[in-house]
Amino acid sequence: MSICPGCGAELNKTNFGGAMIDACPNCAGLWFDDGELSLILQGEPEAMMQMDAHFQPGASTIDGERGLKCPRCETKLTPYPFAGQSDISLDRCDECHGVWIDNGELNKMADYLREAKTDNSPIGPAPKEIEETGPIARAVNGLIDFLRFRK
Q1: What tens digit of pLDDT does each residue of 92-136 get?
Q2: Boundaries of every domain in the chain
Q3: 132, 112, 136: which is closest to 124 by C-alpha?
Q4: CA-based Rg of the chain, rounded to a whole angstrom?
Q5: pTM of this structure
Q6: Residue 33, Cβ neighbours under 10 Å: how many?
Q7: What HEC string does 14-44 produce?
Q8: DSSP characters for the chain?
């Protein structure tokens, strides 16, 4: 049983976009185990928006206080900016490398990625979620490098 870092409710497992995501029925936060967020980021931003719309808060929301703990190993989650420079703050477990996303942050991430595709400015370093060394991560990192340096 996994407990929501945001509100303490029991997380429900659900398959979305090829990843088994843990979703909170109360605050609609989402837990991605190591590598799961990479799968989602490889898709189109519209798929991220659909996922965000699919998981809506049932009752409570996060109280705004941080100090969130990993639902897997109970290590304190570390906040970090998505894509290294955005104002979107995600929470990562430094032990098991899972990522917690508050309700609404997937929409913000999708907007950021969509804007980065149409903007001619560099999009910053690769997001921590896809800094792994596997073949999928290398392909995604190559795409990010391509987008970063296109004219």
Answers
A1: 999 999 999 999 898 999 888 888 777 654 555 555 554 544 555
A2: 12-149
A3: 112
A4: 15
A5: 0.74
A6: 18
A7: EEECCEEEEECCCCCCEEECCCHHHHHHCCC
A8: --B-TTT-PBPEEEEETTEEEEE-TTT--EEE-TTHHHHHHTS-HHHHHHHHHHS--SS----S----B-TTT-PBPEEEEGGGTSS-EEEE-TTT--EEE-TTHHHHHHHHHHHHHH-SS---SPPGGG---SHHHHHHHHHHHHHHH--
